[in-house]
Write a structure and sequence with these properties.
CATH superfamily of the largest domain: Topoisomerase I, domain 2
Number of helices: 7
Helix content: 25-40%
CATH class of the largest domain: Mainly Alpha
Strand order of the largest sheet: 3-4-5-6
Bound molecules: zinc ion
CATH architecture of the largest domain: Orthogonal Bundle
């Protein structure tokens, strides 16, 4: 049974930014961040890299703009954040680096052969590429279906949340807003598909600002800079001519 409860305001503190010294210390004591027992004991005395290469790694990260120094602290840059986000988990782990270092040291002492190391690297890289291919395929499968071709650049037009847009977003700004006040609703993908294919479309179930139902033919009005649907004429409905009053 709960006898009493109270709500308390607490704050969690984000981890402090690394300084060069604290980052060097992490690299030196990398075994604390490794779970694998064998690797842990291997790197325990050595750390990652040597004292010289450790400092060079930080220097390299900074000159390649992955990190930047602000006073004595090291901050990840926007570029660095994006880069690390795109890298597959298994090649950015401390474990894999420790494992490779162990293999290199085994070659040095004659316990292991250079080919074994290279074969493993090749196998590893192939796996990463294969997984990336699957990720790219999955991303492609998640993309909304193509509803037509872009009149400006020929790339697929897709349905977004608020607009139909050209998928070649780096070079092309073509888009059509979904919602149209004049018809009191959004365009459907089928309507935009027809518009892109033929240059015009009959929109049915439109509601004017005065509340009148109508159907009308619209054509693609393309100034080369912006795109609109231009009213052409009221369309005949099955029962009668329906006009906006
Ligand atoms: Zn385009």
């Amino acid at each position: 049974m709960i006898k009493n409860a109270e709500v308390r305001d607490c704050e969690t503190k984000p981890p402090a930014h690394f300084t060069e010294a604290s980052l060097l210390a992490v690299m030196e004591n990398i075994d604390r961040r490794i779970d694998d027992k064998e690797l842990k004991s291997y790197v325990k005395e050595r750390g990652l890299g040597t004292p010289t290469t450790r400092a060079q790694i930080i220097e390299g990260l900074s000159s390649a703009n992955y990190i930047e120094r602000r006073k004595k602290f090291l901050y990840i840059t926007e570029f660095g954040r994006k880069f690390i986000g795109k890298l597959p988990e298994n090649i950015k782990s401390a474990e894999i680096t420790a494992h490779w270092e162990q293999m290199l040291s085994d070659i040095e002492s004659g316990k292991s052969k250079e080919e074994d190391f290279m074969n493993e690297i090749i196998k590893n890289v192939s796996e990463v590429i294969e997984n990336e291919d699957i990720a790219v395929e999955n991303a492609a499968a998640e993309q909304p279906a193509e509803i037509g071709k872009c009149p400006w650049c020929g790339s697929p037009i897709r349905e977004g949340k608020k607009a139909f847009y050209c998928s070649n977003s780096e070079d092309c700004d073509f888009f059509i807003y979904k919602h149209d006040k004049r018809i009191g609703r959004d365009y459907t993908p089928e309507e935009i598909s027809e518009l892109l294919a033929t240059g015009k479309v009959t929109l049915r179930n439109c509601i004017s600002s005065r509340g009148n139902k109508y159907a009308a033919v619209f054509k693609l009005d393309d100034s080369g800079e912006y795109v609109n649907l231009k009213f052409v004429e009221y369309a005949k409905t099955r029962n009668s001519k329906s006009k906006e009053e």
